[in-house]
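REVIEWER CHECKLIST
Item 1: Sequence provided? yes
Item 2: Single chain? yes
Item 3: Sequence as submitted:
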Amino acid sequence: MSNNSSENTFFDISKYFNSANLKKDLPSSIVVFLVALPLCLGIALASGAPLFAGVLTGIIGGIVVSAISGSQLSVSGPAAGLTVIVFGAITSLGSYETFLLAVVLAGVLQIIFGFLKAGIIANYFPSSVIEGMLAAIGIILILKQLPHAVGFDSDFEGDESFFQADHENTFTALAAASNMISYGAVIISVLSLFIMIYWPKIKKMSAIPAPVLVVALGIILTILFQNSSLALSQAQLVNIPVVNSFSEFTRLFSFPDFSQISNQAVWTVAFTIAIVASIETLLSIEAVDKIDTLKRVSPTNRELLAQGVGNMTSGMLGGLPMTSVIVRSSVNVNSGGRTKMSAIYHGFWLLLSLLFIPFLLNKIPLACLAAILLVTGYKLANISLFKKMWRNGKDQFIPFVVTVIAIVFTDLLKGVAIGMLVGVFYILRTNLRNPYFFKFEENDGKKVIRIKLAQEVSFLNKAAIQYTLTNLPSESDIIIDGTDSMYIDRDVLEIIHNFKHNAFSKGTIVQIVNIRDNYEVPRLKELVYKSGKNN
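Item 4: Structure as written out by the authors:
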């Protein structure tokens, strides 16, 4: 559990730097880096920000946030879910420097959220909705990466919404891709998929990660295809900014305009970013914990603190707002990442690549990266997950499927909101049906109805109890037993006492057993902190 002291230590040498973890974390970090690089660039482009800002955000998310975070597998960086907000904010605030101030303030607000223990809301995301979010992300990865796999790259990399920034949608982009196939890209993606599927099955060769081999093959084929009919265009390759000197590198940084601190519009943007980024982060953390093979539980309040520090740092240096990102995090899990060092290493790879090997990285075809993400998407949306949710019953399956469909046809936050509404409906329905146990008994030949109240009877149970008491047969003996009840809502108590008061006119005798006149509301801390998530 994450309340263990070793989990809360930033760097426990014996934990992070042993050979077993390094063998897992180093290869995984390279795969995450290769996937994160084009996503950082694509999200910056879609947000109307400098390309450098996207890479910078990925570096800070990897190094700063991961060092502070209590999550072992989460990877942070610029989020596709914030692109519309960022694009609109940069335009409405009038300058990028003013927008950076909003990012800094959003980070401050997230730190405050962490100290106020707002991470507690993560405990109320229904499991079926989180499972649906994972499956939906898998389906979106497949649908969004298929155009890249065939060489059609007009859509923005990292755009996870159904309606894209280039005025296409997921399915029209697929249709357009089928008419603009690049055979060079198809050859690369097919060979890459073959390697991704079959290379790990060769035990003697499995020490070399399949994604690293895929990228190496992609670079070689890109060079070989030059000056031929199979040649790839620049749009079909990674496009990282080329920095020729350290002084040129330092000029890429931007800094917030603190003279706009009293601008109300800046604060509005800051609150919007802080709330949306925090919700996306909490959703991602819950999802990553679900697919963690070691079943570790991440401290959510500490994650908000880490994200706050990350966004403050990003805003101070010219980066974009960030969140914990499920795509990169799931790639980390599927690549065998074991500890937070995988995410930290990936941040350093981003930094070093920007400084020393931009020309080599610009030879990586998006088709081979698409193959890596296609396999990740398949693992997230595997048919066995749908079968498992079906076996769990319709109260789990329906919110799961609704979440999947809603996310695929809208975006992450809207889809989860719709899934939450359906999930809450089934939770409420279950609560309404289970506020008591109903039993018929006999006492000296006379029929007695015993109603034994549940451990907690809340306001949500009011309608069910009201209906039951109203429809009990007249001229009967009724026992309402609260022996097992730790809490009974005041409105329910009022219904019970009113029923007893009026029952005599119907020839009904009502006996109330072990029901007090007043119950204290259970402390939220006692109910939730048992999970150990909010240390």
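Item 5: Key structural point noted by reviewer: The radius of gyration is 28 Å.
Item 6: Recommendation: ____
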